[in-house]
Task: inverse folding
């Protein structure tokens, strides 16, 4: 039985003392100060990104493979831009073009990627735990860009960064996460990150879309969205896939909107300056009304996208420091 | 015929006759009341001499694992490729293990195990099937289930069932709970088991049929079994050591060796299983032997195949459970040999004169470490890798003949 764990004794873990992890497979296993460290690292890229500043090519000469076994547009683009801004040679591998469809096992694919001597691999896969499986088989750092319903750590980091910048802090913020929590890796990573950083997390969904025993993750569960919104500092809406809202988990889109749609009237139950977030892509008019999504002061949805690039630059930078021989990390 | 045997000075453990220190004789392949002339003397030095294990419901034939585990007979699950629903296939399965291993096929109760049409149970019985079963599936249609039970009762065959309501389980690979939620795995509520058991037991009771629930693993399931037994329903049930010793926490870090069918349950259910073992609710302890190589296990959790290699570790884990639960060895061997033999309707699992000379000599103290790399069977997918245990089979005899 190979050691599947990432939690090896600190002395054996490559990387610096501030972030002693080889991979970023999830928020689980990260200490609060390590999460904060990644947020701090991301801060430094926000201004240069916004100002189209002269590029910092610290990853020049390194190869970044984005291995996406599941379709993605925005996350893939975000990782690609992040890598390129830092000067890395970025290669994208799409499942549709790969031998995965020809029956090659995930382990074999991992070995192949490893043999190509990538310096960092970014992976998205439709199965929970798949990224960890690959991370155990390759020599370079692995970044989880979403595995099944398990984790999507960079999304949680960019959400935390957005909240910290817009609300001034994360601790003691009342964050409501509403939508399809059952199938959501975004929700799991956000719950882990926000509870670690001492936010008050409320989750809200019909019970058909609520993961069992979710309270054990340190959140309060609601089925009544109006009640959940009471006094909220942040309202984070999740996408509900269309195939799940036609009778399987929810009777219809319009009934879902009736109970869980974020309308201006509903938002009024939250704090007057409450922040509205959505990981995208949005179903406008279903889980979120356009007037809310596009609200200039309240909506942070486009800012989330910008933070995404900064967070991914920070993660790529931090995870490759050892290989680049950065002082204190080698 | 095999040479007569004389086991001298053994700690004889018989589920029917209790435990005694003394000698045991085997003549013409059968246990005998007195020593035959010229019998080969085997000095046992006080080691435990017990009936060979009858492992009810193995998924694959794995001779090396069975031999190492002291298993002399197996009930073979019908989910083979092809499915055990044709007399030719049943007969072949019944004969290929002999003489070292007797395979008692469990024929498919429905054609192709599809749960829609009755299979040729009588023809399969005449070809060597000792019971009929639903395999690893549940018959969803209650009308079909009723007719299967009626028909099996007419033939005097027990129906061996898998108790998970398929509508609830869907594509689940875990029991709903904190671990499944943290790992983001599709899960089904534990009540899926009780729901299936409740329906199957009510139908069996109404049909006056004999039913064996291969694995009961939840508190609610055991409550239903207890109530049914009190009412006199002709039912028995089994479990594997995994559900007695592990809870769903064993899935942490996506350890696919802990992916079982039914999935591992909560700690409360595990404790209920231990209580059911101690109070006699559980009749059969089996390995559920299902060897799966890395090509089926080194995958993301939900994509891997369920099942554990259990034949070789069954005895040692069972001895440990008996020690911890204060279960006498003759009771333990009722669970390991006599009761499963009864479900299959075979005369085995006891050490009284006239019974087959299927015996194992066990050093119950012998310590060893379960090592997935070092198991004798065809695959090392054990969730107990690295666990220190006690109890090793020293010698194994099938029909009075020693297996080397």
Result:
């Amino acid at each position: 039985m190979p050691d599947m764990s990432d939690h090896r004794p600190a002395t054996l873990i490559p990387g610096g003392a501030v972030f002693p992890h080889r991979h970023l497979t999830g928020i689980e296993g990260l200490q609060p100060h390590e999460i904060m460290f990644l947020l701090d690292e991301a801060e430094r890229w926000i201004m240069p990104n916004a100002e189209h500043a002269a590029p910092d090519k610290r990853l020049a000469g390194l190869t970044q493979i984005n291995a996406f076994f599941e379709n993605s547009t925005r996350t893939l683009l975000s990782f690609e831009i992040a890598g390129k801004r830092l000067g890395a040679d970025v290669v994208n591998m799409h499942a549709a073009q790969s031998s995965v469809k020809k029956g090659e096992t995930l382990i074999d694919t991992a070995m192949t990627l490893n043999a190509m001597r990538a310096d960092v691999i970014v992976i998205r896969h439709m199965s929970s735990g798949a990224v960890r499986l690959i991370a155990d088989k390759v020599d370079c750092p692995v970044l989880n860009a979403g595995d099944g319903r398990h984790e999507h750590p960079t999304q949680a980091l960019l959400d935390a960064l957005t909240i910290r910048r817009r609300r001034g802090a994360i601790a003691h913020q009342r964050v409501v996460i509403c939508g399809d929590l059952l199938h959501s890796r975004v929700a799991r990573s956000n719950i882990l990150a926000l509870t670690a950083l001492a936010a008050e997390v409320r989750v809200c969904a019909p019970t058909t879309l609520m993961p069992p025993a979710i309270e054990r993750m340190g959140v309060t569960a609601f089925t009544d969205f109006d009640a959940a919104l009471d006094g909220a500092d942040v309202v984070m809406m999740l996408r509900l896939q269309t195939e799940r809202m036609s009778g399987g988990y929810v009777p219809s889109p319009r009934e879902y909107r009736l109970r869980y749609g974020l309308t201006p009237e509903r938002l009024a139950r939250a704090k007057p300056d409450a922040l509205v977030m959505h990981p995208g892509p949005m179903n406008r008019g279903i889980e979120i009304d356009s007037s809310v999504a596009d609200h200039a002061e309240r909506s942070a949805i486009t800012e989330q996208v910008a933070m995404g690039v900064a967070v991914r630059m920070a993660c790529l930078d931090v995870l490759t420091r050892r290989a680049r021989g950065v002082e204190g990390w080698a | 015929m095999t040479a007569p045997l004389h086991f001298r000075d053994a700690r004889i453990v018989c589920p029917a006759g209790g435990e005694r220190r003394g000698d045991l004789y085997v003549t013409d392949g059968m246990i005998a009341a007195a020593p035959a002339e010229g019998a080969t003397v085997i000095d046992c030095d006080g080691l435990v001499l017990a009936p060979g294990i009858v492992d009810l419901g193995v998924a694959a034939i794995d001779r090396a694992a069975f031999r190492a585990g002291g298993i002399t007979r197996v009930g073979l699950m019908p989910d083979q490729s092809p499915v055990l629903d044709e007399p030719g296939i049943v007969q072949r399965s019944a004969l290929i293990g002999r003489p070292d291993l007797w395979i008692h096929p469990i024929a498919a109760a429905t054609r192709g195990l599809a749960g829609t049409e009755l299979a040729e149970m009588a023809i399969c019985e005449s070809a060597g099937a000792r019971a009929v079963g639903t395999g690893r599936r549940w018959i969803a249609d209650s009308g079909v289930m009723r007719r299967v039970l009626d028909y099996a009762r007419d033939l005097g065959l027990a129906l061996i069932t898998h108790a998970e309501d398929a509508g609830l389980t869907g594509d689940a690979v875990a029991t709903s709970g904190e671990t499944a939620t943290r790992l983001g795995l599709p899960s089904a509520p534990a009540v899926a088991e009780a729901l299936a058991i409740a329906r199957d037991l009510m139908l069996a009771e109404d049909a006056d049929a004999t039913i064996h629930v291969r694995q009961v693993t939840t508190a609610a399931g055991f409550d239903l079994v207890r109530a049914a037994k009190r009412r006199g329903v002709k039912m028995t049930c089994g479990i594997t050591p995994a559900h007695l010793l592990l809870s769903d926490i064993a899935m942490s870090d996506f350890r696919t060796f802990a992916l079982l069918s039914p999935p591992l349950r909560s700690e409360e259910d595990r404790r209920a299983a231990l209580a059911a073992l101690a109070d006699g609710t559980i009749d059969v302890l089996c390995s559920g032997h299902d060897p799966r190589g890395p090509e089926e296990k080194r995958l993301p959790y939900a994509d891997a195949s369920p099942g554990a290699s259990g034949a070789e570790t069954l005895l040692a884990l069972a001895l440990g459970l008996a020690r911890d639960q204060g279960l006498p060895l003759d009771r333990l061997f009722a669970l390991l040999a006599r009761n499963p033999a009864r479900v299959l309707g075979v005369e085995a699992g006891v050490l009284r004169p006239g019974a087959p000379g299927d015996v194992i000599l066990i050093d119950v103290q012998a310590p060893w470490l379960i090592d997935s790399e070092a198991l004798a069977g065809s695959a090392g997918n054990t969730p107990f890798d690295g666990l220190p245990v006690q109890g090793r089979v020293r010698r194994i005899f099938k029909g009075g003949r020693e297996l080397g």
Remarks:
- Chain B has a mean pLDDT of 97.
- Chain B is about 30% helix and 25% strand.
- The longest strand of chain B covers residues 359-369.
- The two ends of chain B are 17 Å apart (CA to CA).
